[in-house]
Amino acid sequence: AREEGWGNMVIFNEGMLERAMNLMHIEMDLYRALDMGEFFLTYQPIVNIGCRTITGFEALVRWRHPERGTVSPAEFIPVSEGTGQILSIGKWVLYEACRDMARWRSEFPEFEDMVVNVNLSARQLSQPGMVDQVADVLRETGLPARCLRLEVTETMLMGNPEFANMALRRLKEIGVKLCIDDFGTGYSSLSYLQAFPIDTLKVDRSFVSKMSREPGNFKIVQAVVALAHSLGLEVVAEGVEEEEQRIMLSELRCEGGQGFLFSRPVRAEDVPALVFGGTAP
Ligand code: C2E
Ligand code: CA
Ligand code: CA
Ligand code: CA
């Protein structure tokens, strides 16, 4: 019937309606999710690629939805970015991750030099009170600044590079570490890359996962590692799933690795066991 009314032009179909409704429900449900305690963090180890010892963890948020089960951040983070809800979710993630790491450090000497990585969204980085928020969370949780690494993407930085650079410099001043996430997927200018006060570059999974099969991807990873090192940055390869990739990366002198080969993201209570039990698959 709809098609008759619009001639042969279908401008709105069932699939689109369903997707729009889905987004609307996510948005509405997100409003209570924080208060209801529906978010939790998982942690994925970052290891020394040569010897596999754990050097830190990336905090990855999950949403335990009362009806849908566990919802992936790939689904709700973009929605929350659009509505601004990411600001309160992101603040919760930051606090929770710092508190967990501070607790592990106080309980186990093995965590002394561990670093926790927290993802920032574009909205958070451009929020006026961001640097104070980070400083407050560090003070309240007692986590030393050097044990926190904030992950930002190229795209976030290139929108307004001058502003981003200023925000990063202020974060750097309070002593936190900074990392560019998903490197290679966005567009970024090398001259800016060199100007940002970054410590670490994370090579995106899309290059790592294909590097053992496609020579072109191997060359990209090789070039990114060389570029990072020439700028004095450490490199972490994400999405390492195969031993062959680990060996290639370690031959390229990539410092760190993260991926299912070492461990999937685990719940906070399982983190200490990963450190004590090693990361043998
Ligand atoms: P990301 O920051 O690139 O995080 C890495 C993603 O890759 C995680 O997905 C992780 O589970 C997955 N992964 C790790 N190793 C492997 C592997 O070997 N193979 C494969 N196939 N996947 C692997 P996850 O947890 O679903 O997170 C998806 C994205 O959601 C993250 O991508 C990040 O952009 C965003 N995200 C997650 N937590 C937060 C958060 O607290 N704040 C913000 N702003 N974004 C977050
Ligand atoms: Ca990340
Ligand atoms: Ca990433
Ligand atoms: Ca990625």
From TrEMBL:
<feature type="domain" description="EAL">
    <location>
        <begin position="23"/>
        <end position="279"/>
    </location>
</feature>
<protein>
    <submittedName>
        <fullName>GGDEF domain-containing protein</fullName>
    </submittedName>
</protein>
